[in-house]
Structures are given as structure tokens and as C-alpha cells.
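In pairs, describe these two lines:
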Amino acid sequence: MTRYVVVTGTSTGVGKTVATAALAATTPGCVVVKPAQTGGADGDSDAREIERLTGVPTQEWTVLPEPLAPDTAARRAGVTIPTVAQYAERLRTVEAETVLVEGAGGLLVRLDAEGGTLLDLAALVRAEVVVVVAAGLGTLNHTELTVNALRDRGVAVRGLVVGSWPDEPGLAERCNREDLTRIAPLLAVLPEGAGALDREAFVAAAPGWFA
């Protein structure tokens, strides 16, 4: 039976793609799916970055040129995008032991024109969710809001990943690292600059980032 793991972030820019790559590098038999990629006009994409870092097979479905929420980007481009229910059906056809699904933006960003979100998608495929969080000030509030939304919906929270741990953490970062464990299990702490590693170095280092 296929296991689904959805990766979301508390906000844009918290290191979600590198965290997804780290999970992929440490999850045998997985495939990574990016249902909606925005800002893909120049050929760059999260799926390609994950494949560069890990060599794990990736799939990228809906690609929209402007770096906006998927429903906004689709509306501006004048195109119709799949519904969350259609994404869920397609996910069920992916053959892998584990399907890692990287979201776009945060948990409640709209993925379709009907108001469907990554939270809805996770619920439909009965996924467990990994939440990628920032290290600094504000992260406790953002993390509580995201985790509470998941738990209120009955979606399993696998745990948290700090997406970028500074080389010289300050008081806030050091305290947050401990306080985050009061919200959900802390699965991994990724060092700042991990995404700049080459594949060999990234894959070798990734297991050491996990608790």
C-alpha cells in the first residue's frame, strides 16, 4: 500500500524544497510529486532541484509562469487548472512505496479555482504531513497555526523540519529549537546552505540531519 507524505511550510522561503529533498534522500523507494509549480517560466523548478540534489524520480504536473498562488497564477494566465480532487486521483496512480508531495507556499494556499488547498489534498489521500519551519522569531506562532489546522482536520502530523539552521544561532533560534518540540516532534534540522551542496555531498549528509 502506498504511503503519502505531504510536505508543507509555515510560509514561503522556509526551505521546503531542500527539506523535501532531504526526506527523499532518506526514504527508500520514493517518488516526489510537485502538483503545482508557479514561477516556472525560466525553466527552474522545485522538482528539478530535488532531482539535482538526490537523483530521486520527480514528477511536476501543473506549471504556471508567475510566482504567485496557483489559483492566482492560473487566473492571470487565463488557464484552467486541475481541482484538488483531480490531483488526489492522479496521486493514487503514482506507483511507489512512498509518494512525497511538495506543496506550493503554505498549507492553506489555494491550489485550484474552487478554493481547494494542500490541507484538502492531504485529507483526501490520507497523508501524513511534515511541516517545514523557520528557525527565528515568529516561527512558534506560524508553526502552531499550521499544526493546529492539520489536527483540527484530523490529518496526521508526522513532525517538523527546521529548513535552515544558521551557522551562528542567536538566543531566539536556540530557544525555538527546544520550544518547537512542544508543538510536534522535531524530525530534522537542516544546516544553512544545504541546498548548495552537490548530489554526492547532499545524499551523504542528509541522514545526519534527522533526529
Observations:
- Residues 3-208 form a domain with the Rossmann fold fold (CATH 3.40.50.300).
